Amino acid sequence: MTHRFQKLSGVLIIVVLLFTCSRSDAQLNAEIQKHAAKNQLLSDYYKARNFNPVWGPGHLSELARFLRSLETHGLSPNLFQLNVWEPYWLNPNPDPKVQASVEVSTTHLALFAIQALAYGFVDPTEVHPKWKAIKRAVTASQFLDAAFQQPVGQFAAYLLDKVPPQDSRYSDMVKTLARYREIQSYGGWKPLPDPGRPIGPGIPYKDLDLLKARLQAERDLPTAPQARNRKKIFEQLTSDALKSFQFRHGIDPDGYIGPNTLKEINIPTHERINTLIINLDRIRWLPRAYEQAEHVEVNIAESALRVYNRRQRVTTMEVIVGVKGKHQTPVFHGNIQFLTFRPYWNVPTTIARKELVPEALKGDPVSYMQENNYEIVPYFEVAPEKALPVTVENLNKVSAGGLFMRQGTGPKNALGLVKFIFPNDNSVYLHDTPNRNLFKMADRDLSHGCVRVSRPDELAHIILQRNPENWNLNAVRAAMEDAGNPNNKVHLSEPLPVYLMYWTSFIMGDGRVRFDEDIYGHDVVMKQRFGLR
Questions:
Q1: Fold for domain 290-530?
Q2: Taking Cα atoms as reference points, which of 127, 263, 119, 142 lies closest to residue 191?
Q3: pLDDT tens digits for 337-346?
Q4: What is the residue extent of each domain of the chain?
Q5: Which residue in 15, 165, 345, 369 has a CA-CA distance of 20 to 30 Å to 105?
Q6: Could you give the 3-state DSSP secondary structure of residue 227?
Q7: Which residues contact 532 (CB under 8 A, 6 or more apart)?
Q8: What does the pLDDT look like over 53-76, one tens digit per residue?
Q9: DSSP SS3 for 251
Q10: Tens-place pLDDT, residues 8-57
């Protein structure tokens, strides 16, 4: 009898335990549903899992490992408040309400961190109003699900391998960030005293050793042993290394220490680190598969254009961008849809009103308009023979927006002999220019916002390879010179993506890192978002 009672008691205990666990699980699931309902993404995520918890001790430990590892990508764990959440993970609260809150918040945190590593901590649409959100093929939720399918011990490693941009320039930037942090860990570099005058080859320079150490820190000067220079004469080897430094910092490479060069040399290591951090985020904004297809990139801060095709850089050329503080080129992306050879320049009303009409009215309006090939038209698409007389009255109507001004086609046209159109509400496009000498300048923020291209014939040739017609370089140049076929529009068989980016730090084709001036002040906003000094 006693034996049978003991067996029955054991069964009752098991039943009670199962009932209690079932009731506890149901209560937890109900609380999870309640907490997840506050966010549609989280509600959908947990609904697909019947509102069951997904985080156990092993995965929580791996999540903490993942968040700590984000430091190498320029994403501090502080950005995700790891120090706040980890105590909840290490010491779980038995209250189902607290458990559910921690559970859902942890998923929210994990998705946010994955999103930051994959597509950017800063939302580009919040700092660049013209940027349109890019649809992503793989969501943060899908990355998280795939990580949960791995062995628990591989959870963090999987995310760190699959989530970051699969772009060699991104991984090179991560390595560069690590190298600059190592320099900072040793105290950074010492500032170079102002020599008081330009210093170059053949000139005695008492701080020559300090300059060499500074150039070696960023690998512009080899660290191999060099002959002793007792007289401290600035030699050609150091001058060549200084030219490398100047080129990487957007300075005319003359090999002399001048004010601009000294300023860049003396920017502290921690500032370079902060610049690398925010530019890593800017790379994350791009489509993950963008490097697979042909596309055009314009780096506004560098005043440079690059064409890529299948992970390979096809060409690089100088460009001119909008004037800082006045006519800034916006950060956005679009698709080049057609080219126009020998285009008209449809003068924006603001430029006509503020610049051209006042200039015409200074002297003889007719002579001014003829010399510059300008005409007054009732609308831009009108035939040349429909142009209106050049009178003071009509010029005033142009200023008021009742009539319009355009410039006829030809080599003196402000747009040159070809323009590349990607329709947008900014009226920004790529184009040729008659002012070729401006490309020799180191600082090239000189336009009204459009991007002037230094080698437009080469760019047109590359782009038109997508079309079935035989657009060789000679055919492109012939179209540019064909005065008998003005405003000749050629549509692309497939639109070509173009990205107008703003990178103040960038990995060049030879693997070296480049730093450019923050001409538009965009870095200030980014650093504030990251909580950087």
A1: L,D-transpeptidase catalytic domain-like (2.40.440)
A2: 263
A3: 999 999 999 9
A4: 27-162, 208-267, 290-530
A5: 165
A6: coil
A7: 274, 277, 278
A8: 999 999 999 999 999 999 999 999
A9: coil
A10: 344 333 333 333 344 568 899 999 999 999 999 999 999 999 999 999 99
